[in-house]
Amino acid sequence: MGRSRDVERFDRWAETYDRHWMQRVIFGPVQRTVLDLAEQELGRPGAILDVGCGTGRLLRLAGERFLGAELTGVDPAPEMVRQAQAAAGPGSRIRFQQASAEKLPFSDRRFELVFSTLTFHHWSDQPKAVTEIARVLAPGGRWLLADFIATGLMRYFRRLLRMRRFSERESLGAMLSPAGLRVVTERKVLGLHGQVAVLAIGARE
Questions:
Q1: pLDDT digits (tens, 9 = 90+) for 114-169
Q2: Structural domain boundaries in the chain
Q3: What is the pLDDT of residue 106?
Q4: For residue 139, which phi and psi values (nearest 5 degrees)?
């Protein structure tokens, strides 16, 4: 997420974000699918990064499933970061900080698992952010990208409605390739009419 209007909107939303109906209808199924696929792909990842972590709900759930994992979340909206820290509580092992996908404040090959759930379409410079994620992803690691990915007939609706913020499957592949990445596994999120996909992305062999 990098557009200033988006950041301002999420700042205003932060206090009530976890009580919104979308948490139950959309984010819940997406997060369950992401965690199931993470376990399938990596088993027990040691270091996890959530890019566009919001209030940190996915990382709190990941902490329950991946005991002992190092958990880090970044979000460009300062109010979201504050809400995430408050929700995690004192003594939490989850670390949150303000940062954008386009400029991740971490060393190379730092994380075995990277999440981005329904945030990719908010990123102001998607190719640059993809390069940053490739940089911080450890060898053999996975980036789990969950978003509305246009395929089939949805591609034509996307073009008709000028929904350029939502990637087409083919254009996403073209964006990943220069960063040395490829889609390894793909899973549709049940209950959302197949409109949201979770892609497990890793280094090209």
A1: 999 999 988 989 999 999 999 999 999 999 999 887 554 444 444 443 444 555 66
A2: 4-203
A3: 98
A4: -55, 130
Q: What is the pTM of this model?
A: 0.84
- Residues in the chain with pLDDT < 70? 1-5, 9-25, 150-170, 192-194
Q: Which residues contact 139 (CB under 8 A, 6 or more apart)?
A: 109, 203
Between 57-65 and 78-88, two packed helices, what is the crossing angle to 10 degrees?
Answer: 40
CATH architecture entry for 4-203: 3-Layer(aba) Sandwich (3.40)
Rounded distance between C-alpha atoms, residue 185 and residue 33, angstroms: 12
Single-letter residue type at 10: F
The secondary structure of 118-183, three-state, reads CCHHHCCCHHHHHHHHHHHEEEEEEEEEEEECECCCHHHHHHHCCCCCCCEHHHHHHHHHHHCEEE
CA triple 137-66-145, angle to 5 deg: 40
